[in-house]
Amino acid sequence: MPRDTAQEPLLTQHHESDSQQQRSSAFSITVDDLAPLTDPTNPKLPRDLGGIEQICKALRVDPKLGLHSDEVLGSSSPIEGASLGKADQPKFVARSEAFGRNVLPTVESASFFSLVKQAYDDRTLILLSIAAFVSLGVSIYEDYGPHHDPDEPRVGWVEGVAILAAVAAVVFTNAINDYQKERQFRKLNAKKDDRCVKLLRDGREQEINVKEVQVGDVLLMEPGDLLAVDGIILKSHNITCDESSATGESDALKKDTQERCYVISGSKVLDGSGSMLVTAVGTNSFFGKTMMAMREATPDETPLQVKLDHLAEAIAKLGMAAAVAMLFTLIVKYFVQIALSGQDMPDGGQIFSDMVKIVIQAITIVVVAVPEGLPMAVTLALAYATTQMLKDNNLVRVLSACETMGNATTVCSDKTGTLTQNRMTVVEGTLSLLSFTNMDGGKTWIKEAKESVSQIIIESIALNSSAFEDKDEKGNLAFVGSKTESALLGFIKSVGASYSTLRADIKVVKVYPFSSAKKTMSCVVKSPQGKEPYRIYVKGASEIVLRSCTHYVDSEGETKVLDEQARAKFDQIISQYADKALRTIALSYRDVSSSEFKTYNDEDSPNVKLVCLGVVGIQDPLRPGVVESVRDFAKAGVTVRMITGDNLQTARAIAKNAGILLQGGLAMTGPEFRALSKAQQTEAVKRLQVLARSSPTDKTIVVRRLQELGEIVAVTGDGTNDGPALKMADVGFSMGITGTEVAKEASAIVLMDDNFSSILKSLMWGRAVNDSVRKFLQFQLTVNITAVVLSFISAVASDDNQSVLSAVQLLWVNLIMDTLAALALATEPPSPDVLKRLPTSKEAPLINFNMWKMILGQALFQIAINLALLKYGAQLFHLPLNRHGKLDSENLLVLRTMIFNVFVFLQIFNELNCRRIDDTLNVFRNILNNRVFIIVQFVVLAGQIAIVQWGGQAFKTVPLSGKQWILTILIGSLSLPVGLFLRLLPAKVVPEVILPQVPEERQPLVSAARMRWEGAANQVIMQGKFFEAIHKKKNPRGGSAPSLPQQRTALTGELAKDTLWKKAYGAAKTQLDNNRENNNNIGSSNSDV
Hints:
Calcium-transporting ATPase, cytoplasmic transduction domain A, Calcium-transporting ATPase, transmembrane domain, Rossmann fold, 9-stranded mixed sheet, 8-stranded mixed sheet, ATP hydrolysis activity, EC 7.2.2.10, calcium transport
């Protein structure tokens, strides 16, 4: 009788697949067994697989120690029938074979052949190829047919072959560019996906690359983590996850070890901490399966690409109209000439051959007119810029952010780690009312403090922390985690304490992780030496923790009531540290009874009736170059605003040192800003330069108000809760070192070095990208207009219906102005000059006044010079005329070759003009910094020499003499003085009707000069109102005004009386506020005075 397996745990059931049995022979569980655990549509609970303990045994992992680096020698107790293989086997091979690696299969690169096919997938090029094949067929028939004159050379086929060769050159050049571009973006994506996670291995916390995570690993979870694996919660301290990107569920989901124990990859840890058992990685995880299904998606075009696509489409339509007009005109002219000549109608073969030549000319006009290089210029500029920006520690995740950053008007920056070095050190402190400085590193304090008190302080730092010590890349021990916590751990290490020993001896029973809203972190521990069985430790922002304290510990170790006098002393200590630009952290504790502990929930930390242990001052010096970068931002018309969680005094001190807070600028706290009405916030944000004690919500509000004023806002953020502000910003910058994975995912650019100066570099590259595209646009439109008009007029005016520029010559010009020009002009590195102008406004046209002036002026000049050479070139170049006063076919070919040479050199020299899109006269400035530009010019020059000297019948050219080369180059170089003249041409000379002038630059909301002037004026008003209030207080009934010495004495007496000072100050401030309100301006907050 067969046994019933319905009630047996799934782990004991046999599996039919032999291959799967072989792969998982080291484990009694398979990928298919684990998959239902994290299936959002139909999840199974761990008890369905025998429970957490049974799953850990099956995966051969001790949840308290994690995996062993050597599974053979140090594996967990094996379950029956499992083996891990040979001792010399590389680590985790059996595990990787059974459950896969945490990587997705590499996307196959598009083959070069497919890129060639894609480049050739253009209707115009296909049409031109068909016409070339027809021309080739007709030419071969004429050369080798019965009517061919034996004395004539058989070279008719050369033009058709040359056109096909030129088409092939265009196609292969585009394909090579696409191939290079794809390689660059692949490197960027590989860099983007490279990150580290924290886990438990060999019984200790470690950081490893996310790609090395294995099924069975014990992964540590912290706020801000972006989970790359599926798993089961092993330990949860109020863990909350956002699974909206995976499931569409917008609400934050609580996680525990019971019913809500599963977590899926792609979700974000919003709050809490804990650990999880990894059950699925790579393509077996939820995120991996989703990504594999989305790989066919194509990237969106950037806004600039969309603009240029529309412009290219409009130009192509005009080019098509010109081609159709040319085709119609030449066909009509062809038959009219035959009719007027009185000769017999040519045979059908001749007419067909002539018609094919006319069609080829018309199609070539379309090829030249269609600016297919415009979108390619954007792509090349972005590809080059993003690659170079990575060298400047800017990892671009969203391509459009690069061009958007170029027009940024405001940067809202964090302080810690961005403006400062994020190398935090405890340099001063007052613990149990005993002060110390960085001179002795706290050694004097540890000697003077009561042992019982110092032990509590050391325990509070060691236990109420998630930072730990690990080896860095060089093998040196370094703290990993929050820099503030690392500084505190470094302090207790300097006084001889071991945080790891304390963590091993004392059990932490509940953790309330740091919250940017609460500005505190708390933990509850078992306290065998305390008065009660539990003790809560709280640390955080000094004034916030102090607000929750009712007692303090003095130098004798006595616990005393925190009365007004003692509280004022602590406020004074905090103020002194803050004035030195130190971050102040307060430490506190309280003993908790068993009955009270039972009332604690996982939501809110019970930070009440605390005992203040003291305050420490943590120094985080400004990064080198920050002051200069802030100054450069100001020159570029970009306002820097500092939004920080530090207290107001610390924030003001650092902002002044950095040059952010100017006289007249507004500095206030987040709660003060939130208390304002929307209209007041909009008015205040114009002058806001420092927002202290701010929450992520405050940052989001500031961004929204600035955007409502038309600002283009860049925001920096590193925390999970910064996600909304980073998403809302026009450009979001996350921190590559200290930033959470959630922040990185929400950002457009990752600062790999967390350095503020890197933001300035991204601004420069953004402006360089926009400038590069405009330079190319200026160059290409000039060539377009000139080539189309010249071809049309010369073909219509000629006797043989042939343009002065042959089809193959035009294809070479097309190659110059599309691919090669895009390479030359789109790879221009940014110069410091880009910071000397204000941001471009959103309303500014793509082609500005200066560009139109250069485009139309150069086009008119080039058309005129070429038509003049066509008309008077024989006389100018001393070419002999026949008896009819015309050039014979041989000399006509010489003239057309010289005109072709002049045309190309006009473009070569005009490309130098197009390096500048402003009125700067020196077009050679910084030219040596762009090696690509120089190389391209040499390539074009070499190609032109080869075509003219050896192109022959294929390119319809003849070799020129040295004198003719010099003449044509000199005429071509006239583009430079013409460009100089056009730059010197005043704007008022050009009528508004012809070229309307639209303001391009966006002015700051409030200029620095105006801010300083108003700040100085307000200060004078404030001082006057203050003295007036003092005077009224001294003379309430309108007595005579006291003398100056009397005023000084009165002022000193008033300042000595705190209450009277506050009244006078309040009266002065009220009058000032009323005065500002009457002027419809926002009233200054307390922090602005």
